[in-house]
Design brief:
It is a single chain. This protein is α/β, with parallel strands linked by helices and about 260 residues long. It has one domain. The protein contains six helices and nine strands. Strands 1, 2, 3, 4, 5, 6, 7, 8 and 9 form a nine-stranded mixed beta sheet that branches.
């Protein structure tokens, strides 16, 4: 499928990239495929709308925010879903205690659903969930799953969140967490921790001194989802020594990988 606009390509990635976790209460890949089915044929026709100022979404420094906007766009375009709320704030007095990503109506069943969505890229440093961290080492896979399951999904089912739902006359019947992204294994290791789905996208990471020889292109944050043709990406120059992790694409194999400073 030839999609000229980056929003089209990123929407295609969102609709087709396997989920990282598929156990309950997370959505599974069958749900994602069913959701994507009426939207995928429409993607080539959206090019003219992508030129509108209303569609000028850009990842910038906040990839998670851009990813949420892509989901909002997908929901708005979907024939079976109607958006009721996005980033619904839940307060305790004057203090914000959380926000619900999406409340949607499933039109065919006339039921309401609460969705939490996230895109994450983790590098494995050991066999346990807590050993998988973001490139900046400030975000852990174990912490993200815990927050989704223990804080974000229950937000509208208890206390202040439930009051907001009831005040609007809503009854939430389904909750889903949708977590996409990619896991990067150290070197040749490819064992992912439970509960990662076996179909989750994978890559590799290397310390700078151990990066195999090859032809690499640098991935800007705006290329972390679908990305551009590799020939349009800037070449990666491995020297001087790295001071920060770099996200790369191998021009030889097409594999995505991270290279990190030797003291990472």
């Amino acid at each position: 499928m030839s999609l000229p606009h980056p929003i089209q390509r990123d929407l295609h990635w969102l609709l087709t990239s396997p989920l990282l976790v598929t156990r309950s209460p997370y959505a599974n890949n069958d749900f994602l495929a069913q959701f994507a089915s009426p939207l995928l044929p429409r993607l080539p026709t959206l090019n003219q709308y992508c030129q509108s100022p209303l569609w000028q979404l850009r990842p910038g420094a906040r990839l998670g925010h851009y990813y949420e906007q892509l989901w909002r766009l997908a929901i708005d375009l979907h024939p079976d879903y109607r958006l009721l709320a996005h980033n619904l704030l839940v307060k305790q007095g004057k203090r914000v205690i959380g926000s619900a990503d999406f409340v949607v109506q499933h039109r065919p069943s006339d039921t309401l659903e609460h969705w939490e969505v996230a895109v994450k890229f983790y590098l494995g440093r050991g066999p346990e969930l807590a050993d998988w961290v973001g490139p900046g080492k400030q975000d852990r896979l174990a912490d993200k799953l815990s927050r989704l399951e223990q804080h974000q999904l229950p937000l509208l089912m208890h206390h202040e969140g439930l009051q907001q739902v009831q005040q609007r006359g809503w009854k939430i019947s389904t909750q889903r967490a949708l977590l996409q992204g990619r896991l990067y294994h150290p070197g040749a290791d490819d064992v992912a921790p439970a509960p990662i789905d076996p179909r989750a996208p994978r890559g590799r990471w290397y310390h700078h001194h151990a990066l195999p020889q090859g032809h690499y292109r640098s991935l800007h944050r705006s290329d972390w989802l679908a990305g551009r043709d590799w020939r349009l990406l800037p070449r990666f120059a491995p020297w001087p020594a790295l001071t920060w992790p770099r996200h790369l694409l191998s021009a030889d194999s097409g594999e995505r990988l991270f290279v990190v400073p030797d003291n990472w």
